[in-house]
Amino acid sequence: MPAFSAYDGTELAFGTSGDGPPVVCLPGGPMQDCAYLGDLGGLSAHRLLIMADPRGTGGSAIPADPGSYRCDRLVDDVEALREHLGLDRMDLLAHSGGTNLALLYAQRHPERVARLALITPSVHAVGVDISGEVRRATALLRRDEPWFPEAFAALEAIVAGNGDAAAFRAVAPFWYGRWDEAARAHRDAEDEHKNHEAAARFAEDAFTPDATRAALARLACPVLVLAGEVDLNSPPAAMAEVAALFPRAELVVQPGAGHFPWLDDPARFTAATEAFLAGPAH
Prior knowledge:
It contains 11 helices and 8 strands.
């Protein structure tokens, strides 16, 4: 994999796939490598995907300072990648926990972002609250599925503050539009690609939601917020609140999709994302 040196000398790796205008992709987890993104449902047929492995994951080296796993400090890694690629401005796509990093990057370097695509985003960086009732209502959309009773009972325990490791495993079907063999394999592989020490430090004193929201209200670039209709993690009601933070945001809710919409309906996901990336920037 190609690599470059971060500000502190840590060697960071990134992969490339596809052809067309480049889009820099930040994975979720948080602190998971890019392998689980695949080719984003075929988006690589339209775009050169630049897949950045965060420090300490995938092909990227483990840093000397574990404190550098903090999300606000990872902003400098994204900027170092942009400089390495020689891009004046870049299209930036991020998924789930990685959207926190994309938002902090846009806050600090707004002039460097041409377009910002937030795929089933996390809400930590902007302080949007997702209530237990919203999660329950989203979960109930799946009430006719055979796995629902066990998964919903586990969700109730989690919402009540009594969720253990088994409960978090039991709610896994809610993360996917279809709980089939492909989804199970995807879920099982996720843990292998995550740096748990890094994930534990990712949010550590990293976020100042009021300041971030104020900065995003002035962000000039267009923003896509893509939500999955049945995504328990990032339900559409909360994603509408995220979209409302930006002056030029478009909310797209993908029917029947969970937290990984490129797996649930690759063609629909690719069409929506490519239409956004092909649109005007500033």
